[in-house]
Design a protein that fits this description.
Layout (H helix, E strand, L loop, with lengths): L4 E6 L2 E14 L3 E5 L4 E5 L6 E7 L6 H18 L14 E5 L13 E6 L2 H20 L7 E6 L4 E7 L21 H10 L4 H12 L3 H7 L3 H12 L9 H19 L11 H12 L5 H12 L5 H8 L7 H14 L1 H8 L4 H13 L6 H12 L3
Parallel strand pairs: 7-8
Antiparallel strand pairs: 1-2, 2-5, 3-4, 6-7, 8-9
């Protein structure tokens, strides 16, 4: 397949990198040389494994741009298309970098050297930076760059020569008479396209338009597929028409307390002990006023520990929010009577004193009071109305 492009973002600056082609290969065996024993072994564990190689045009001008390009490719292949696990250390995703330098103002590309099998984005950047410095040093000393294949030694932070290579024919390409022609029809392409999962970029746009999320929230949710899928399953388990603002609440809960707990325990969201359906029910209980946001955290702790149903937890522990106005007025009267100084401070214009009074009511009710009602009642009573 030929053509196409990828857009990268480096320090807020967008750039388009053209794609030369994408082709399929078979992974080959590799030689393992033990010079101290003068032995060579052959590792065939990955031989025959399908390998997709994507080649770009020489549009990148820095190690940072190359790393940004590799990260976008990794995201597309691993998270959007889901064709592999993308584990760089295990060889599921590797990068080769062709590096050349040229005098400032020149349009002619210099002789390139290829750095093979880089297995991290950080090593990719460091290898390119070292290789560029190496080539500049040779040219400034009056030398000549030899086209060759090099490897990167992470411990020494340097590239070393593996073999020289003049032209593409050194790869020894030749046609295989046993391979039949592969015809790719428009119908087949459309069938494949329709079966592919929705891209994270498309999800991002939909979250903004369909759920009314901010772009920043949508970007955070779609930074990884597990976050996006947990959020969507939670939203689908509730009634958006009944709770118009619940998608935003579910997003904040997913990115906040759930991600924090998952990170603390080294878990992906797909493996936490709370299902999206249980998460949705808990957020509904906050939305319908059954429990307050602070009490919801206590319920979440119980759910994480194994008590799965939020309604059962609320009933068993008596956590239902106090919304009876008469009962709340009695609590507010008690707090006003017992905190004369804070009442005087608020009436003299010190707004922070009001928050303290609200906190006293919440403490008195063990967090069960409806905070919105408490705020309204206190303001009315303190204003003398």
């Amino acid at each position: 397949m030929k053509g196409g492009s990828i857009t990268i973002d480096v320090d807020g600056r967008k750039k388009t990198v053209r794609l030369t082609r994408a082709h399929l290969e078979e992974d080959a065996g590799k030689s393992l040389h033990e010079s101290f024993r003068d032995l060579t072994g052959i590792d065939l564990n990955r031989a025959g494994t399908p390998l997709l190689e994507i080649v770009s045009e020489p549009d990148m001008r820095s190690a940072q741009e190359a790393a940004a390009y590799a990260r976008v490719l990794h995201k597309l292949i691993v998270e959007d298309i889901q064709i592999c696990d993308g584990n760089m250390q295990e060889g599921s995703f590797r990068c080769d970098a062709n590096v050349s330098v040229r005098p400032a103002g020149s349009d002619t590309l210099g002789t390139r050297c290829e750095i093979k099998n880089l297995n991290s984005f950080r090593f990719l950047e460091r290898a390119i930076e070292f290789e560029a410095r190496r080539q500049i040093g040779i040219l400034e000393d009056g030398g000549k760059i030899v086209q060759e294949t090099r490897l990167y030694d992470a411990e020494r932070d340097e590239t070393r020569s593996m073999r020289t290579k003049e032209e593409a024919h050194d790869y020894r390409y030749f046609p295989d008479p046993d391979l039949l022609p592969l015809e790719v029809s428009d119908k087949w392409i459309e069938e494949i396209r329709s079966s592919m999962p929705e891209s994270l970029e498309a999800k991002r746009r939909r979250y903004v338009s369909e759920y009314g999320l901010s772009l920043d929230t949508a970007l955070q949710l779609t930074s990884a597929r597990d976050k996006a899928e947990f959020f969507e399953k939670s939203v689908r388990a509730t009634d958006i028409k009944l709770f118009p603002k619940i998608a935003e609440d579910i997003a904040n809960s997913t990115l906040g307390v759930l991600m924090s707990r998952a990170n603390d325990e080294g878990l992906e969201l797909s493996r936490i002990p709370i299902t999206p359906q249980q998460h949705a029910k808990l957020r509904e209980r906050v939305a319908d006023g059954t429990v307050s946001t602070s009490i919801a955290k206590e319920i979440l702790d119980a759910m994480w520990a194994g008590e799965r149903d939020p309604d059962s937890i609320i009933a068993k522990r008596g956590l239902k929010q106090i919304s009876d106005s008469g009962e709340l007025e009695r609590f507010c009267d008690q707090v006003i009577a017992g905190n004369a100084q804070q009442v005087a401070d608020y009436r003299s214009g010190k707004e922070k004193a009001f928050n303290s009074l609200v906190g006293q009511v919440m403490k008195l009710t063990q967090g069960k009071a409806n905070p919105q009602q408490v705020t309204e009642i206190l303001k009315r009573k303190l204003s003398g109305r």
